[in-house]
Write a structure and sequence with these properties.
With 366 residues, this protein is of the alpha+beta class. The chain has six helices and 18 strands. Helix 1 links the parallel strand 2 and strand 3. The N terminus is likely disordered.
């Protein structure tokens, strides 16, 4: 098994309290998340609301457009994090995925095929038929268990008025049935071994802001609480469990779902034992973003990690740094949405209305 290993020097770690030797070498892995924005095939599924994404639907979604969408996404995924790690991401969480078939088509793209990605995916109860999933490089990561954990929210917490509605990436996912349950995406939990070291990953796409940010906040707070319970259960089994929770949270780092329900902290020094660290809060303070609405930026796409991944040594895999992948080819260059992520329109097959995010995990080589 050939492992890509890079040299990192003292200057890259001035923020750490450890004295480093310039000759030290590290194993590095990139972990990414990307909202694929409506990765639909062209086939009508009678059990979901996917009619818009068919040749006769509102988007006029043809085979040619679908194939270009796959090519575009593959280009993005192959380049995330390559400024510091020439290998493509070892782990990729994704959202807005119609089914396993579109993922199988995606990983066969020329820019990804050589990376030999495996797929972990479950169909969720979302009425649009969009799901979350994990792609993983088989030579580095070996999954041992995975499950989809449902998020239960009910009509008595629902948004019944359409006033102040905010346009979002998934504005029609809230649906009710006679048992009053509102169906949204499940949370995907994966456990496996990254080069022999146990890692847990939670992939999320929390309920949208349909109905308005404030009125819909309780849905996302419930999603954050479910995340916290999953992490707690893993830490009860192993107090040193290494957990990464990632996804399109439809909330930024300062919102209640992230700060209170999940309990994420902005500074490593503030993270208690068994707590979680959010490296994207500092970016939000600086005005950076992964999604824009009415010229206001926010970071909905985040990767949040447990305290066990920020301990001050690199004898096992630890967090190094995080980033937003907003390379120029992903940015709209003209018109009303200049500077925004280059998304799909009726006249252009773009990439996504979100920028991807990533973190690096590194370990000192012996």
């Amino acid at each position: 098994m050939r492992i890509i290993r890079l040299h990192f020097y003292l200057i890259a770690f001035l923020s750490l309290s450890i004295s480093w030797c310039q000759s030290k070498k590290y194993t590095i892995h990139t972990v990414a998340f990307y909202n694929f924005e409506n990765l639909f095939d062209t086939i009508n599924d009678p059990t979901t609301h996917d009619d818009e994404w068919t040749p006769s639907g509102a988007q006029h979604w043809t085979k040619e457009k679908y194939e270009l969408k796959l090519k575009n996404l593959a280009r993005v995924l192959s380049e995330i994090g390559t400024a510091d790690n020439p290998n493509g991401p070892t782990l990729i969480g994704g959202s807005e995925i119609e089914n396993r078939g579109v993922l199988e088509d995606l990983i066969k793209q020329p820019k990804l095929q050589h990376l030999d990605y495996g797929i972990i995916h479950f169909d969720s109860p979302d009425k649009r038929g969009i799901d979350v999933a994990l792609l993983y490089q088989k030579k580095y990561f070996r999954p041992t268990s995975y499950s989809n954990i449902p998020l239960y929210i009910y009509k008595n917490n629902a948004i019944e008025k359409e006033e102040n509605k905010v346009e979002t990436d998934d504005e029609v996912e809230i649906k009710t049935v006679n048992n009053n349950r509102i169906f949204t995406r499940d949370q995907l939990l994966i456990t496996g071994f990254l080069e022999g070291e146990e890692i847990h990953i939670i992939v999320n796409h929390w309920p949208s802001r349909s109905g308005g940010e404030k009125k819909s906040s309780p849905f996302r707070e419930l999603a954050g609480s479910l995340n916290r319970r999953i992490i707690d259960s893993l830490q009860q089994i192993n107090p040193n469990a290494k957990v990464m929770t990632m996804g399109d949270l439809n909330d930024g780092p300062f919102n209640r779902s992230v700060k209170l329900a999940l309990g994420a902290k902005a500074k490593k020094s503030e993270v208690p034992e068994f707590g979680v660290f959010n490296p994207f809060e500092e970016m939000a303070v600086k005005g950076m973003g992964t999604i824009a609405f009415r010229d206001s930026w926010d970071i909905f796409d985040q990767i949040i990690i447990t305290e066990s991944l920020i301990k001050p040594d690199f004898l096992t895999f630890k967090f190094w740094k995080a980033g937003i992948f907003n390379t120029p080819f992903l940015i709209t260059t003209s018109g009303q949405y200049k500077g925004y992520p280059l998304r799909h329109t009726l006249t252009e097959v773009g990439f996504s209305d979100h920028f991807p995010v990533y973190i690096y995990l590194i370990k000192e080589m012996k």
